[in-house]
Amino acid sequence: MRLLERDDTGGVRLTEDLPNNKIPPYAILSHTWGPEEVLFKDMTDGTGKNKAGYAKIRFCGDQAWRDGLKFFWVDTCCIDKSDSAELQHALNSMFYWYRSAVKCYVYLADVSTHQHGDGPGWQPAFRKSRWFSRGWTLQELIAPTIVEFFSKEGERLGDKESLEQEIHDITGIPRKAFQGVPLSDFSVAERMRWIEKRDTKYPEDKVYSLFGIFDVHMPVLYGEGRQKALKRLQDKVHEDYLCLAKLWPTDPRDPHVEKERIELAKGGLLADAYRWVF
């Protein structure tokens, strides 16, 4: 995982690609892509500051710094998308990266807190924000423990706890899904419905953005189309379900009876089988 590091003068640089056991506490940005996003190449050749998208990077770095974090992650420039192996790894790791972040900052480019006169405030724009209709932002809402929402001016609007009812009304996702309840508590069909009204630039991404929601890892094959990608995902989920179903539970109230039942059902014990297990 590659991070951005902010120094005490406000400067930002990319770290090297860090192994999992060397990743420091970090904040993470959630946003919708717009014109002139800062890419990996822009950061490495020093031209990133000349792009409009750098404002989001500066916002994320400054907010993280205020929260006591010097490292942060932004998808536009922390992934070298020209490296297919790195892109594969990133898309399969995204849910984990968002879940592991100390804080997730949602930057809403289409929500303003600067109102003129006695207008209705930022709430109507919040409900209509493009962020709620994109595919990848589904996992960015659910995975992190702390998700904070900010206007395009960088003013804090609330978090997913204080805005829980509004988010539920907008997305239709059960409130307990925002509260850290295991996603396995929700049926496959229910989780599939969460993505139905969301859009992605590439049709396959509507499926790939569900990897973390179903806790699966799969090859990313752009060009295969949404239906083939969905079939592969459904097959993988079904395969994992069957594997878990074979781990039949035993009755913990009387382990001796259970032990005898298993021995009889399986035709006895294999001599020294426990040594192989150990």
UniProtKB/TrEMBL annotation:
Pfam families: HET
InterPro entries: HET (IPR010730)
Domain Heterokaryon incompatibility intervals: 26-115
PANTHER family for this protein: HET DOMAIN-CONTAINING PROTEIN, HET-DOMAIN-CONTAINING PROTEIN
Descriptive protein name: Heterokaryon incompatibility domain-containing protein
